[in-house]
Amino acid sequence: MALTIKLTQKSTKHMIIHLGGSLDTVTASQLDKKVDEVLTGSPAHLTFDMENLEYMSSAGVRVILKASKGLEKNKGKTTFVNLQPQIKKVFEIIRAMPDMSIFSSIAELDDYLDSMQKRVLGQED
């Protein structure tokens, strides 16, 4: 599934990134490039609108965390709105993880995130 990215300038220092589709290993580089472009404008506030985002893997999580850290360096703020239940679950899982790695590989983490999102959507195998 493809990733759609749309930017909306809310104010001179507030940018909204609207995401749709799938944010995964294949599509994460698209968002990474777009975030880099946005951060060159030194926004004070970046909002990710995830209303139409259907799936997110660990690659997507990495891009989101990188964006947040980039903003924090300049005392900026990152917010998230309109999370679908399965995407919210990914954030809950990530927040619950200790600082140390609990997965043996990226593939294992992606499998886990995939199964949790399917469970939330009632699509268990």
TrEMBL record:
Gene Ontology molecular function:
anti-sigma factor antagonist activity
InterPro entries linked to this entry: Anti-sigma_ant, STAS_dom, STAS_dom_sf
According to the entry, every stretch annotated as the STAS domain falls at 15-116
Known SUPFAM superfamilies for this protein?
Answer: SpoIIaa-like (SSF52091)
What PANTHER family does the annotation carry?
A: ANTI-SIGMA FACTOR ANTAGONIST TM_1081-RELATED (PTHR33495:SF2), ANTI-SIGMA FACTOR ANTAGONIST TM_1081-RELATED-RELATED (PTHR33495)
Q: Which NCBIfam families match?
A: ant_ant_sig
Q: Which family does it belong to?
A: Belongs to the anti-sigma-factor antagonist family.
Q: What is this protein called?
A: Anti-sigma factor antagonist
Query: What organism, scientifically named, is this protein from?
Result: Desulfatibacillum aliphaticivorans
What taxonomic classification does the UniProt entry list for its organism?
Bacteria, Pseudomonadati, Thermodesulfobacteriota, Desulfobacteria, Desulfobacterales
